[in-house]
Design a protein that fits this description.
The structure holds 2 protein chains of 2 kinds. By secondary structure, chain A is an alpha/beta fold. Chain A is built from 16 helices and 17 strands. By secondary structure, chain B is an alpha/beta fold. Chain B contains 9 helices and 8 strands. The chains are: A alpha/beta, B alpha/beta.
Chain lengths: 487, 269
């Protein structure tokens, strides 16, 4: 089925309608809203007036809201936003666009030859806001309808799900934003320095960035996590600490910064602390991370000295994009507010890393290293702990990039409980592998089942022999009883 | 006053740099003096240490006298000074947590008069031997960062110099317990020290079994000694005569644990 021009026109009209609804929802909560429309939308103007808002003309009229009515082109969006944010610093900027990186749109281009969307891709847009001194006040996203393309429904679903696993925003077909200027931000200057583009986002070769989550639940263990990072062998090292923003910023150096400075005196590394509101920290840290190699560490975790050396060495010896090591989970007993390690349990077990391990042990996000130079520009996304299970990232990566498993002794340690947030159901995950790889996985599962069966038989045989040897009378009775009941 | 003894043997610059940096951090909360005893073939480390730890109290022993003998010299000198409260053996490949020495002393205070040995907890991969979660008592202390109290030294002396390397810490721990002294871990005193992935060398394996054979012999467990000697010989060890030892007292025999082979205590994992 070939996409018709009126289908595209329908998309544009749908965007306009959604933008109108979004704008009305935002402005009507503001008493005395004064709305400037950049572009022409008679329907929106009338709806605003009907809802008691004032439609004003230009920045000079002191609008509380500025609406970019027309879908912005990728090349002009930033300058438009910067221009209005500078002209009316107190106004909320509202706009919407059809995501050029949406899975449905990409499929339409690939399969039907539909021209690529002229608007921006969500991935690029989102990454530019912070760099330009703009803060997201609200975001609304709408998926594309399914089943409108030429593929069978299941095939389309599979491909779109793979896209969504790689980029969660691939299902966001229409995206609407309300932005505000950060206090004291010089948006124009920020844009000019950010527009150098590649220099600020280029990966530093060989540099390992460890993103360390220092949530309030891990305050006690942060010291030891940083101690282990400072003493581990891989260099050069950058530590990006994510500290959820509290009610008020700390006066002077925070305890986190004091801790990092202290351990810098033992092991050389650079660090930065990222403080953001709920749900924004990890993504902000990912944007700040400069290293070619990327790892995560929960402050409840520890790394052994050669943990990163081994993982990065393994990556360098092949072409995998990421590598995972085995870990220990501590079974802790708390006595007089002191944690006592009763035992350590290695995980995952087995010689091969299965997808099921990544689902069952989301903590393994702390036991891996990613070579970002091998991700083909694929941006990473990780929610703050407690919001989404880290297994979502692991499974997204594994869906396309088969991980390298360091099948040896554990080289890192989990000292806290498994995260509570549920991960995506494994049955819903789409994975790209060769048929041979799947055959291997099925073969291993069969062998494991057969081994378990063989083991049961061996145990029973041994028990039978021992009983016969030690207590022949009892053995005879048991045998007679089993014979009777099995007839 | 706390005296810290470090016994060196051809250590590399990075190791010493990190150790000195950790000593500097410990200086902010604890008062101590470091003595560096060098068992290396030459005194090349003298200049290196002077650079890393200005004014370093460096002693060149002139021969590899072994871990125990070198520390014994340190303890004899340290406890000759009346204000020395305790002596701490520190392995040069360890990195002390900034509060390690303070926490060792805190544990001594918590135990009281009968405190004998207190060890820092190995980090990041803790030693699997057990300790009581409340009292921190442990069957034996590792010599990586090991505090010896004046009281213990006066009662039982230092290390048995018949152990060149390995097992001297186990022996000192059992002697301390047999003499009624406490043997404890200070869980908050951390030392970064990791040897699990070190290459297993035939020399090391021979040394461990040679020392273990002597330990079994000393504590009256002939079967254990015999088995370790057999292993030593299978590893190519040169024959040697076990030194004569007095019959171990009941207290010494009770303190010893050979049930768990070279772990000397039931491991937690």
């Amino acid at each position: 089925m070939v996409r018709r021009p009126e289908d595209t026109a329908g998309e544009v009209e749908s965007l306009a309608a959604r933008l109108r609804a979004f704008v009305l929802a935002r402005v009507t909560v503001t008493r005395g809203a004064r709305v400037a429309l950049v572009g022409s939308d008679a329907l929106l103007a009338r709806a605003l007036v009907d809802s008691g808002c004032e439609v004003v003309d230009g920045a000079g009229a002191g609008p509380t809201h500025v609406v970019l009515v027309d879908e912005p082109a990728a090349s002009t969006l930033e300058s438009l936003l910067a221009e209005w944010a500078t002209a009316v610093p107190g106004a909320e900027l509202l706009f919407g666009f059809r995501n050029a990186g949406a899975g449905a749109s990409l499929l339409a281009t690939f399969l039907e030859g539909v021209p690529a969307r002229p608007g921006p891709a969500e991935a690029v847009v989102r990454s530019r806001f912070a760099a330009c001194g703009l803060r997201v006040q609200a975001r609304e996203a709408h998926p594309a309808a399914k089943g409108r393309g030429p593929l069978p429904a299941e095939a389309e679903r599979s491909l779109r799900d793979v896209f969504a696993q790689l980029r969660p925003d691939a299902e966001d077909d229409v995206v609407l934003y309300a932005l505000a200027r950060e206090a004291d931000a010089d948006v124009m200057a920020a844009m000019e320095s950010a527009s150098g583009g590649t220099a600020s986002t280029a990966l530093v070769p060989e540099l390992l960035t460890v993103i360390l989550w220092a949530g309030p639940e891990h305050r006690e263990s942060l010291d030891e996590a940083v101690f282990s990072l400072a003493c581990q062998d891989y260099r050069p090292l950058e530590v990006v600490v994510v500290e959820p923003a509290g009610a008020s910023p700390p006066a002077g150096a925070s305890p986190v910064e004091v801790c990092l400075e202290l351990y810098r005196r033992i092991g050389d590394f650079t660090f930065q602390v990222v403080r953001r509101g709920p749900g924004e920290g990890m993504d902000a840290a990912l944007r700040a991370a400069r290293g070619q190699y990327l790892a995560f560490l929960d402050a409840s975790g520890l790394v052994y000295p050669r943990h990163f050396v081994n993982l990065i060495g393994a990556l360098k010896s092949g072409d995998a994009a990421w590598a995972v090591s085995r870990a220990y989970r501590d079974v802790l007993r708390t006595s007089d507010a002191e944690a006592y390690v009763e035992t350590k349990v290695p995980f995952p077990l087995g010689d091969v890393l299965e997808l099921e391990h990544l689902h069952r042990h989301p903590w393994l996000v702390n036991a891996q290293v990613i070579d970002r130079a091998r991700l083909a520009g694929l941006p990473l996304h990780l929610e703050d702990p407690g919001t989404e299970s880290p297994s979502a990232l692991l499974l997204r990566l594994a869906s396309v990039f088969e991980p390298l498993f360091i099948n040896g002794l554990p080289t890192c340690e989990q000292r806290g409980p498994e995260p509570i947030a549920p991960g995506p159901a494994l049955s819903e995950v789409r994975v790209l592998r060769s048929f041979g790889a799947w055959e291997g996985a099925v073969g291993r599962a069969r062998n494991a089942g057969q081994s378990a069966k063989d083991l049961r038989h061996r145990v029973l045989d041994t028990l039978n022999s021992r009983l016969k040897q030690w207590v022949p009378g009892l053995h005879g009775n048991v045998r007679a009883w089993v014979s009777k009941w099995s007839r | 006053m706390l005296c810290v003894g470090v016994v060196l043997y051809e250590n590399d610059r990075r190791e010493l740099q990190r150790l000195c940096a950790s000593f500097a951090l410990n200086r902010e909360t604890a008062d101590f003096h470091v003595v560096w005893r060098d068992n290396s073939p030459t005194d090349a480390l003298r200049a290196e240490l002077e650079h890393l730890w200005p004014g370093a109290d460096y002693r060149f022993t002139g021969a590899n006298v072994g871990f125990g003998a070198a520390h014994n010299r340190g303890m004899a000198e340290a406890f000759a000074a009346p204000d020395t409260r305790a002596y701490v053996c520190v392995n040069p490949d360890g990195v002390l947590h900034p509060r390690c020495l303070t926490e060792l002393l805190a544990q001594v205070d918590a135990v009281g008069e009968r405190a004998g040995l207190v060890e820092a907890r190995l980090f990041p991969d803790e030693h699997p031997k057990p300790y009581a979660p409340r009292t921190h008592e442990t069957p034996w202390c590792s010599g990586c960062v090991l505090l010896v109290t004046r009281g213990l030294y006066a009662a039982v002396g230092g290390f048995d110099e018949n152990f060149f390397m390995y097992c001297e810490d186990v022996d000192l721990s059992w002697r301390a317990r047999a003499a009624g002294f406490g043997v404890h871990v200070a869980p908050r005193a951390l030392v970064h020290h990791y040897t699990v992935d070190r290459a297993i060398t035939p020399r090391r394996e021979r040394m461990v079994r040679r020392s273990a054979a002597y330990l079994g012999h000393k504590y009256g467990n002939a079967a254990f000694a015999r088995e370790r000697l057999r292993e030593y010989q299978e590893l190519g060890g040169e024959p040697f005569a076990l030194p004569p030892v007095p019959r171990p007292s009941a207290a010494l025999r009770n303190a010893a644990d050979f049930e768990h082979l070279l772990q000397f205590a039931e491991p937690r994992w």
